[in-house]
Amino acid sequence: MVSNNLATLNPSIDVQTAATTPWDIVVVGAGPAGTAAAARAATKQLRVLFIDRSPLPRPKVCGCCLSPLALAELADLSTSTAPQFRVSTLSLTGLTIVSQGHRASVPYATGGVLSRISLDTCLAKNAIAANASWLPDTRGVSCTVDHETVTLTVQTSSQSEHTIQTKRLLLAAGLHNALRIHGNTDSHRPPRNRPPNNRIGLGTTLPSTGGPISERHLVMAVGSGGYCGFVRLEDGSIDVAAAVHPSILQQSATPADALARLLTDTFQDVECPIDPSLLSHSSLRATPQLTHYTGHVDSQSTRILRLGDAVGYVEPFTGEGIGWALLSARLATEALIDSRGNLRPSQEASQQYQQTYRNALNQHHRRCRMVSLALRSPFLVSTAVRAAGRFPTIAGSIARTITGNS
Ligand SMILES: Cc1cc2nc3c(=O)[nH]c(=O)nc-3n(C[C@H](O)[C@H](O)[C@H](O)COP(=O)(O)OP(=O)(O)OC[C@H]3O[C@@H](n4cnc5c(N)ncnc54)[C@H](O)[C@@H]3O)c2cc1C
Predict the structure, then answer these.
(1) For residue 28, which of 109, 140, 145, 185 is within the disulfide window of CB 3.0 to 4.6 Å?
(2) Is 402 in the pocket of ligand 1 (CB under 6 A)?
(3) Would you list the DSSP string of 171-199?
């Protein structure tokens, strides 16, 4: 087994130097979208800085499954940035879905598993190796745009404020509506369209002794208030990631109680793959509301593009967000930088990015919205699980709907 106890990734620049350097591209957020974009842009010899409010490694609420798209994008990143860049993942060999005391095995040998501690740190190391400058513990607070530059105000962990100037700003800060943007006329936080009935994410990691989960096997528990996935990570620990309706949190004393109730309700007489009592001793982390649409390009300036979850996100049941984030990073950098390594005019780049993003991702988002709607009907889910438990062809068609493989 590989350990995911990685050493802290030291900054490669200090904030004072970052504040006096004229940057071509600054990236806010060092998740898969931000780190992949930083690596790709730095490989083109541009001056690139990427910052994160947290240090790396850091834990993250995530199911840690890598879709076929994510694996393909990681392979492409290696070819395009550094052939020695390799992310080794565990291959998934099966999926079990449980609902209302029924269980079905679904053929699902199309993806990989890797902890976010390992994945995000590995991606950030690749960006640094490509010559991008890395500034952790630094939060983007706001920015001002004029005709030539974007001025980003950042705050360090010791609360000191600095301004950083860049030609293009890439917002890859995930589900957090991170920055206040000051344009010529006003100051705003970009509006986020969120549907009613939105869920939030909860997650934690349990010790390897936390339950009888087989390696390379994903277990998804679907209940009326949400769903929860379990998978064993590369160091043997168990990743727990859930999407729950806020009402089940309001009805419970703690988030751990809410999750334990969801599991009891879902598994009933089927053996639960973890000991639910362990949840109350673990540090559960939560996310903002999951489903939203904010937009690829900021309304104040075509110099500010969004990547990954910052553009928009649909619930995580199908486990595709990392692939979408990596793909958006490639599409954004292809739009921003021409074949000679120069920045394209921002209007042209932003139009190309919006178009290629829509062509590549809208159909995936539509399928995920359909799946997340179906998951809100306990009757539909338990009928499908019972049928899949008896008829392999139905199990196969559920797998195809989840993965999008026809
Ligand atoms: C419960 C759950 C399960 C999931 N399971 C899966 C799965 O199995 N497979 C899959 O592919 N996807 C899954 N996802 C989705 C996946 O986690 C995201 O789509 C993916 O992390 C998006 O990457 P990103 O780079 O856009 O954002 P993130 O990974 O969220 O990274 C954003 C970064 O920005 C930083 N940041 C935020 N605000 C600021 C600021 N103001 N200044 C500086 N830094 C900032 C954060 O610290 C963070 O490091 C799941 C999500 C949830 C909630």
Answers:
(1) 140
(2) no
(3) E--TTS---EEE-SS-EEPPP-B--TT--
Q: What's the number of domains the chain is made of?
A: 1
Q: What's the pLDDT score for residue 224? A: 86
Q: Element (H or E) spanning 390, and its range?
A: helix 378-390
Res 387: pLDDT: 87
- Which residue's CA is the nearest one to ligand 1's atom 52? 62
Which atom of ligand 1 is least distant from the CA of 175?
Answer: 30
173 lines ligand 1 (CB under 6 A): yes
Whether 95 maps to a domain, the answer reads no
Name the one residue in this structure whose structure tokens are 């060999």: 93
Report the pLDDT value the prediction gives residue 227, as an integer from 0 to 100.
Answer: 95
- Give the pLDDT score at 186: 65
Is the beta carbon of 278 within 6 A of some atom in ligand 1?
no
User: Of 265, 274, 252, which is closest to residue 223 (Cα–Cα)?
Assistant: 265
pLDDT at 182: 83
pLDDT at 2: 38
Evaluate whether residue 363 is within a structural domain.
Answer: yes
The residues of the chain scoring below 70 in pLDDT are 1-5, 184-187, 403-406
Residue 215 located in a structural domain: no
Which atom number of ligand 1 is nearest to the Cα of residue 241?
1
CA of 151 to the centre of ligand 1 (A): 24
d(CA 284, CA 340): 47
Domain of 141: which CATH number? 3.50.50.60
Ligand 1, atom 8, residue with closest C-alpha: 63
Q: Quick one: pLDDT at residue 3?
A: 45
CB atoms within 10 A of CB 160: 11
* Distance of CA 219 from the midpoint of ligand 1 (Å): 21
Q: Which atom of ligand 1 is nearest to the CA of 323?
A: 11
